[in-house]
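Marked as duplicate of an earlier ticket. Keeping the data here for the record.
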Amino acid sequence: MKQLLLVFVGGGFGSVLRFIIGKYLNNAETGIPYGTFASNILGSLLIGFILGFAAKNNALTQNHTLLLATGFCGGFTTFSTFAYENHVFLKSGDFLNFAIYTVASFIIGFIAVFVGMYLVK
């Protein structure tokens, strides 16, 4: 039960922060979801840092990892919103922004995880 509570609390904080970032960075005029992109990339960097730190230093308990990686990063990043925003791009015929957003999210997201893990070495 404690582990569920840790994931719940971490996820709540992550979701609120993602909402705030999206509110200020998503561009309603162009429809480009800068906030979602920023949350996903920052979350990828952070999870790489957290899990890299946990592996290197053996300093984080399973409960810390559940709170920070599973909970916070899980709530902060969002694949469902990413998928929906891509659906909107495709539905409107905006294939260029669809391609840029999708490719950049995957490539930069993967790089961010590796950078986060590298930073704790």
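See parent ticket for discussion. The chain has a mean pLDDT of 95.
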